Amino acid sequence: MPKMTFIERDGTRREVEAPLGLSVLEIAHRHDIDIEGACEGSLACSTCHVIVDASWFSKLEEPTEDEEDMLDLAFDLQETSRLGCQLIMSEELDGLVVKLPAGTRNAS
Ligand code: FES
């Protein structure tokens, strides 16, 4: 089973099982990691924002324009920011590390 690591706001690292095909948002929810995901992955909020570890960022698929637009609204936006609901676990992403942003802001 692939794994991924979330770095929580206080710096705690949590390594969890990351089933293939699930989004980072879904994986977070399964493990009670505090990512909101208000729109359940329909690209209508930015509350699933995560900051991807720089060494992993280039391995991800490019964001769609819709994702970029939503990301522009995210709080604490960084160069390696992505939306957790758009990152789907694959074999290549086994070991992925993402950090929770300092906070979220709902788009609405
Ligand atoms: S959960 Fe709303 S954009 Fe990801």
Q: What is the percent of helical residues?
A: 10-25%
Write the element-wise H/E pattern from the N-terminal end onward: EEHEHHEE
- Ends apart, CA distance between termini: 37 Å
The biggest beta sheet reads:
5 strands, mixed
Description of the molecule:
- The protein is of the alpha+beta class and 108 residues long.
- It contains three helices and five strands; from the N terminus they run E-E-H-E-H-H-E-E.
- It has helices at residues 24-30, 54-57, 65-71, and strands at residues 3-7, 13-17, 49-52, 81-83, 97-99.
- A five-stranded mixed sheet has the order 2-1-5-3-4.
- Strand 1 (3-7) and strand 2 (13-17) form a beta hairpin.
- The longest helix has 7 residues, at 24-30.
- The chain is globular, with a radius of gyration of 12 Å.
- The N and C termini lie far apart (37 Å).
- FE2/S2 (inorganic) cluster binds next to loops.
